[in-house]
Amino acid sequence: MEAIKRALADGWFREQDTAVVLYDLDALTARVEALTSAFPAETVHAFAVKACPLPPVLAMLAQLGLGAEAASLGEIHLALAAGFPSERIVFDSPAKTVEELRLALSLGLFVNADNLDELDRLDDLGRDMGLVPRAGLRINPQAGTGRIKATSVAGRYSKFGVPLPQREAIVDAFGRYPWLSGLHVHIGSQGCPLELLVAGVGAVYDLAADLDARFGPGRVAVFDLGGGLPAAYRDADRPPSPQAYFEALRVRCPGLEGNQRRLVTEFGRMMAAPCAVAASRVEYVKRQPGHRTAVMHLGADMFVRECYNPRFWPHRTRLLGAHGLEKQGKPVLHHLAGPLCFSGDFPVRRAMLPEATAGDIVVIEDVGAYTLSMWSRYNSRQMPRVLGLRQGHFSVLREREEPEDLVQFWLGGSMSA
């Protein structure tokens, strides 16, 4: 919490800032290094842009040698603007339009097709454009679901990918399209245990081996094992490290680290979530029999999942005084309420904190992924100032929105008030 204290003292967390988000970029760099050292050197680690689309953060990750995983047209452009080489951008949208695929082909992106019809579309476009697609096929291994159903994508039914039991159609696609060179699998995000991740990847790895046996060694040249490693949101959480994950994969998938296939990963939450905190001023403290409610300036606008599904999305919290010193005293029960006009707007319920008063600062930890990127426009609240701290120096990663910015947003980018 020393960084928040410094940001206040040095004027980075200004009087007009009702809240800020602070990224520890050194911590993010260390997590990138832990990931890259755990996997073979030639692995392409494509950071999931959806987890944290802040351009300065993406630019730093590009400079560190990562690739980017884009799930929309906008994320493609964010990745390009951040400096990711096009050949290290993976395009994974489940609803790719013809024009989006034209762009992907022209840029040389690696496209993970979500269904067999998309392969037909890619083949037609490639012939029309005189280009050979770089593409893989997403497979649903039907390995099961984790404890969070909404973020598990490898159950018996999933909106994503081609079910593994459709093996004959998959084999036919590899026979029909000589340019089809990869397989893609993703099990889920948060809530999936190591055993489930390894089982799902292993099932698709076996498919790759079968395809190589049928069509010749190296037929599957790219093996994209997705992301899915969880972050620790509770003190008791013990998520597997990248090293532990790869060691488990090596046991299940012999030869995984050989030169026969290029590995691709698509981690986001595991890398970025632990590297940021949100700090909001307490505007009011309301007391009712059995309840103490601290009203803050961040709610379901930033913490969408946390407010709608608090059972699965907890956050650790701390309480600072107005000048950034951690408050002392016996912890008492608080409900941390956001500023939005609906009754479920509680980013954290039942937080045990020292007695809060107006002007204090609530710090919510582990907000570096799937928070700002899921920002809601309900009530047209201003997105807060986002700071970065790197080698002891602060920078502004994104400036606080002003009311005129919100007016322009609702007008649309091509119009003016």
UniProtKB/TrEMBL annotation:
Pfam families named among the record's database cross-references: Orn_Arg_deC_N
Gene3D superfamilies: Alanine racemase (3.20.20.10), Lyase, Ornithine Decarboxylase, Chain A, domain 1 (2.40.37.10)
Record flagged with keyword Membrane: no
Cofactors: pyridoxal 5'-phosphate
Active site, per annotation: 341 (proton donor)
Residues found modified as N6-(pyridoxal phosphate)lysine: 50
UniProt-recorded Gene Ontology molecular function terms: diaminopimelate decarboxylase activity
Family annotation (InterPro entries): Ala_racemase/Decarboxylase_C, DAP_deCOOHase_LysA, De-COase2_N, De-COase2_pyr-phos_BS, Orn/DAP/Arg_de-COase, PLP-binding_barrel
Keywords: Pyridoxal phosphate
Domain (Orn/DAP/Arg decarboxylase 2 N-terminal): residue spans on this chain: 26-273
GO term, biological process aspect, one: lysine biosynthetic process via diaminopimelate
PANTHER family named in the record: DIAMINOPIMELATE DECARBOXYLASE, GROUP IV DECARBOXYLASE
Protein name: Decarboxylase
